[in-house]
Amino acid sequence: MLPNRLKHQIFQGSLSMNEHQHNGKSCCDTVVQCATECEKCADSCIGEMPECARLCRDCASICWTCASFMSRGSRFAEAICKVCADICEACASECEKHQNEHCQKCAEVCRRCAAECRQMATAAA
Fold first, then answer.
1. Which CATH number is 98's domain given?
2. Does the keyword Cytoplasm apply (predicted)?
3. pLDDT given for residue 23 in this prediction
């Protein structure tokens, strides 16, 4: 999990961003949304669907990390975006197996996040 102080900085946009990062703000916003949805889904799945909960926790963790790397302009942000996209796709595939509303919403957000992260990583290459 991301420390609350850093979450607040990401949500408020108070971390400095250069022009390239500013263009990636949409991606950063999407990974924050994905992390939040994955945390909700994991909490709902923990008892009955442990594999889904594990993947959601992994996805939330990498999304928070990705948002942090992008918001501070890390030179490794694009590499993290690629990993984030892979994990988001795995999480979406697992969540799509379940009919629960929270799993379906999580899968949708994960697919969108994976697409934006791939686009961000490709644009930077």
1. 1.20.1270.360
2. no
3. 45
